[in-house]
Amino acid sequence: MLIRRPPDIPTREITEESAYFGRREFLRAMGYGAGVVAASAAVPGALMACAPGQADPDDKLTPWEAVTGYNNYYEFGTAKDDPAKNAHTLKPRPWKVKVEGEVARAADYDLDDLLKPFTMQERVYRHRCVEAWSMVVPWFGFPLKDLIARLEPTSKTKFVEFTTLADTGQMPLIRRPILDWPYVEALRMDEAMHPLTLMVTGVYGKTLPNQNGAPLRLIIPWKYGFKGGKSIVRIRFLERQPRNTWNIAAPNEYGFYANVNPAVDHPRWSQKRERRIGELFRRETLPFNGYADQVASLYSGMDLRANF
Ligand SMILES: Nc1nc2c(c(=O)[nH]1)N[C@H]1C(S)=C(S)[C@@H](COP(=O)(O)O)O[C@H]1N2
Ligand SMILES: [Mo]
Asked: From the CA of 78, which ligand is nearest?
């Protein structure tokens, strides 16, 4: 039933409003009902035909309950069900995003103004945590490269850094020094400009739940999940490679690149296999999370053991 197509062709373009406010008629038209959707059952075949990034026809969407109930968002607790329980204190509107550094259009933007030019697309991506679990998630968002193009970075820019919210009012648990808050992640410019790299504002046709990083988070499908910062408040364009939170916390365990690589083990466990949430048996992990044909060239000539 699934026909393979190049992954950078959007499944479908939907209006910003629809992605944002999840109007009932929109959801019905898209075939989304109560939230749990089986890829083949609920979505009309014509729409599923070119799901971007869904390289393996066996990939089935991970149910809504798991995508929104089994999370990593340490600002709201370290147990997988903590974010769903605790993130109701996050207020995703109004929301400001500060754009800084080597960029012509540096400013404090209201998020809704920043998002206005973009059409939200659905991208079905494999989502792989460094802890060796994975999911298949229908994100809604737009390519980061389109936002970067509008912000006009200078020719000096080599890296783009994302800082996420650290507000004790909305996140009482960050009083505990579990990580060096705020959570910071960054990408090399060519990684940031890759068409698979997505700014995400929704999931399953609905506004992004707080526990998934509302109102704006990043998804880089060929990297371990920790590169995808949640609830982004600052985008900074830099000449030099910045340090990232997990690298600061445990430099021998987490590098800058964090490309999914079954050949390089985490010091405390293997990365060869993964447990797809909802499945009984572990499966082999694919290099670059299955996106090697599209992204491996970004790293040609690099030692991926040294640059983990
Ligand atoms: N601000 C922030 N962003 C974060 C994290 C976090 O703890 N804080 N966890 C990361 C990790 S380790 C993963 S695997 C993904 C999980 O995203 P999900 O809960 O939407 O599946 O978010 C990433 N982004
Ligand atoms: Mo993760």
From this structure: 1
Answer whether 240's CB lies under 8 Å from 156's CB: no
Q: Which residues of the chain have pLDDT under 70?
A: 1-55
CATH for 65-299, options being 1.10.290.10, 3.40.50.1100, 3.10.50.40, 3.90.420.10:
3.90.420.10
Distance (Å, whole) CA 45 – CA 147: 31
Structure confidence at residue 56 (pLDDT): 72
pTM of the model: 0.85
**CA distances to 73, 129, 154 from 228, in Å:** 11, 10, 24
| Cβ(74) – ligand 1 distance below 6 Å | yes
Domain residue spans of the chain: 65-299
Q: Give pLDDT, residue 30.
A: 41
Beta bridge partners of 236: 100, 161
77 lines ligand 1 (CB under 6 A): no
pLDDT on residue 54: 57
CB of 291 within 6 A of ligand 1: the answer is no
The length of the chain in residues reads: 308
pLDDT for 57 equals: 73
Q: For ligand 1, atom 6, which residue shows the shortest CA distance?
A: 73
- The reported pLDDT for the residue numbered 37 is 35
Test site for ligand 1: of 78, 139, 230, most ligand atoms within 8 A of the Cβ? 230
- Separation of alpha carbons 30 and 44, rounded Å: 8
